[in-house]
Write a structure and sequence with these properties.
2 domains, two-stranded antiparallel sheet, 2 strands, 3% strand
Length: 258
């Protein structure tokens, strides 16, 4: 029998890891704050909000990275990743239709929900293959691929300031491969999380997520440090779907009063 280097051989814990819900709840609050600044600054013309928004250039990356990575960590606990992904994809494309109709030219055509749905479907197909790869090199390779493809939507492979390999222009004609990140200047999406690079961060989470299947996880992972945040984290999808219409309505009322 092989040594216990493959941690997936351990019996998985059936207890919910509440700390991940709490972290996700924190990111939901952060996202709502960030989007409130955007709405006030760029839709309702409040200069102070625009200045605050522009002063946080890394906020979107922090929020996006956290959601995608945690989704990769937790997909291993899904009883049916393919079904989960298919349902989420239907929700994502319904959002595309609605936002494309309401916000002409600024619809969401491959946002974070599209990304997570497709990644879940990919995992459903290749998950057993990934389990044959040692978690550490798998996670490191995925992280390296994430870094090296991060700038694909901006027109090049590599690391900014060190190595730049331009994306072949044939791949960006008409932005037909937009879901991979191969887009030209005419492409527009209010929320854009293409497979390159984000798929690799999700898969990195899948590899590291093997630790969460251990039966001897430390107790602090299961504690509910803030029930309100944990609740928000557990219902992050529903909150994500309704938060922008609610924010728009609240901002409309507040700007009308003040």
């Amino acid at each position: 029998m092989n040594r216990t280097s493959d941690i997936t051989h351990k019996m998985p814990s059936t207890r919910r890891i509440r700390l991940l819900d709490t972290v996700r709840g924190v990111m939901v609050i952060y996202m709502i704050y960030y989007h409130t600044l955007f709405d006030l600054g760029f839709i309702f013309g409040k200069g102070w909000a625009r200045d605050q928004f522009d002063a946080q250039p890394f906020s979107q990356m922090i929020i996006g990275c956290t959601f995608v990575f945690i989704a990769g960590l937790t997909i291993r606990f899904s009883r049916n990743a393919a079904l989960h992904g298919a349902k989420l994809l239907l929700i994502a494309y319904a959002m595309s239709l609605i936002t494309g109709w309401i916000m002409y030219g600024q619809g969401i055509y491959f946002g974070v929900l599209h990304l997570l749905a497709v990644c879940m479907l990919i995992y459903a197909v290749i998950g057993k293959v990934l389990d044959r790869i040692h978690w550490l090199p798998g996670a490191l390779v995925c992280l390296a691929l994430y870094v090296c493809t991060y700038w694909v939507p901006y027109g090049f492979f590599g690391i900014k300031g060190l190595l730049k390999l331009p994306v072949p222009p044939e791949l960006t004609v008409g932005s037909r491969l937009y879901y991979f990140g191969f887009v030209n200047a005419s492409f527009s999406s209010a929320d854009f999380y293409p497979l390159l690079p984000w798929m690799f961060l999700f898969l990195c989470g899948c590899f590291i997520g093997r630790f969460l299947e251990r039966e001897d996880l430390p107790e602090f992972l299961f504690r509910d440090y803030c029930p309100a945040l944990t609740f928000i984290g557990r219902h992050s999808l529903a909150i994500y779907l309704i938060h922008q219409p609610v924010l728009y309505a609240i901002c409309s009322i507040l700007t009308g009063i003040f």
